[in-house]
Amino acid sequence: RARTEARAAGHGLTVDFRQSNHEGELVDWIQEARTSHAGILINPAAYSHTSVAIRDALSAVGRPIVEVHISNIHRREPFRH
Which residue, of 29, 43, 67, 71, has the greatest Cβ tally within 10 A? Predict the structure, then answer.
């Protein structure tokens, strides 16, 4: 976290860290970002494979989005590709 904040500060940016296991809360935050954030860096975990609501919210946000994973999804089960 500290490294991410320091890197962002070097570019004149701040980072808003959030975590939830609740899909609806994640969708609310994504929609909020449309007017309050420059972009989204998200690790949606299994929601990247199962949540149409999160996908639709990200598609509509109109900001740069970077999706990260802690594993290589292409080396995992076929449905994660």
Answer: 29
